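Example 9 (inverse folding). The structure is encoded as follows.
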């Protein structure tokens, strides 16, 4: 069984007298910084000069400075910039200021696991990875709860790396619901696999295929959108709240029978075999190398794919259909 830590296992006093630097104020950065600040932690945010987030940090009542300044002054440094720039930011603006006894933290293991970053001896290297987007980490915290997180220790130079990581996890609210112990390898590989095989890649590919099947068969695009896209959230919410059994309890017997008998036909053994190939590419570093090269080349393939997918009919129809739903906030 996995080890899970809760509030009683974490001590915020471990961070007392220490300065915590959050590098970046994006999805995760804004949530971590504000939650830690509200928890009484001495926190500052490091940004590049001229960053549009500078004013947002100040408006939140949190100290802000350049990445160099915050790295120089911090005892604990959390890297919360995108994977593709983490190495450059670390090499140029963080590494020069690390000292023995400092803690270098991550919310995703990509840079450490794939050897993009090698911290010096004497520095603790750890991870607190919330299992939810930053806006949820912030919102749930303000409501008195917490989004679960993962904790991992890659380098325990001080023999206090876990205590520091758990204190950080408590500070952002994760210990309220549970912090599961893992490794950098496990977090990185399972996270990438989940994104590619089901959460992002698998789901969006299936939605597009289903939408195209109905439209090509002569059905109205708007009807196809409702059946293959809009209702996905309704079903996922039911599974999120009560598992697959809870979802099946809430749908009709007709839908449940179709689930059992037709679902496996669009998820044949060949699909699982392809998933295994995707996992192999993650484990052996093929995907990481591909993504690194893509960024070094200026992201030409990535940007082309982004443009093509934004122009897919299901997206264009969806923009119109969602105008009917006044309760949706404009994102």
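The amino acid assigned to each position is listed next.
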């Amino acid at each position: 069984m996995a080890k899970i830590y809760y509030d009683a296992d974490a001590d915020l006093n471990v961070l007392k007298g220490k300065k915590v630097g959050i590098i970046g104020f994006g999805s995760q950065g804004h949530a971590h910084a504000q939650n830690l600040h509200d928890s009484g932690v001495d926190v500052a945010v490091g940004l590049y000069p001229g960053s549009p987030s500078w004013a947002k940090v100040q408006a939140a009542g949190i100290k802000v400075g350049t990445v160099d300044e915050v790295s120089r002054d911090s005892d604990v440094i959390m890297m919360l910039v995108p994977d593709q720039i983490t190495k450059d930011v670390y090499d140029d603006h963080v590494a020069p200021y690390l000292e023995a006894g400092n803690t270098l933290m991550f919310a995703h293991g990509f840079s450490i696991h794939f050897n993009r970053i090698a911290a010096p001896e004497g520095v603790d290297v750890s991870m607190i990875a919330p299992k939810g987007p930053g806006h949820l980490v912030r919102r749930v915290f303000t409501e008195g709860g917490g989004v679960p997180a993962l904790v991992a220790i890659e380098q325990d130079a001080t023999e206090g790396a876990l205590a520091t990581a758990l204190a950080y996890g408590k500070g952002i609210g994760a210990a309220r619901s549970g912090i599961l112990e893992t490794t950098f390898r496990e977090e990185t590989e399972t996270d990438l696999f989940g994104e590619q095989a089901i959460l992002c890649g698998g789901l969006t590919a299936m939605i597009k295929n289903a939408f195209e099947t109905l439209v090509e068969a002569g059905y109205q695009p708007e009807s196809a959108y409702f059946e293959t896209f809009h209702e996905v959230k309704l079903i996922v919410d039911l599974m999120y709240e009560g598992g697959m059994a809870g979802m099946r309890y809430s749908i009709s017997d007709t839908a449940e029978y179709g689930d059992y008998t037709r679902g496996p036909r669009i998820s044949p053994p060949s699909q699982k075999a392809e998933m295994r190939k995707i996992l192999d590419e993650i484990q052996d570093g093929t995907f990481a190398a591909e993504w690194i090269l893509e960024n070094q080349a200026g992201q030409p393939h990535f940007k082309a794919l982004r443009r093509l997918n934004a122009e897919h009919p299901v997206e264009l129809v969806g923009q119109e259909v969602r105008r009917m739903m006044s309760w949706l906030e404009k994102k």
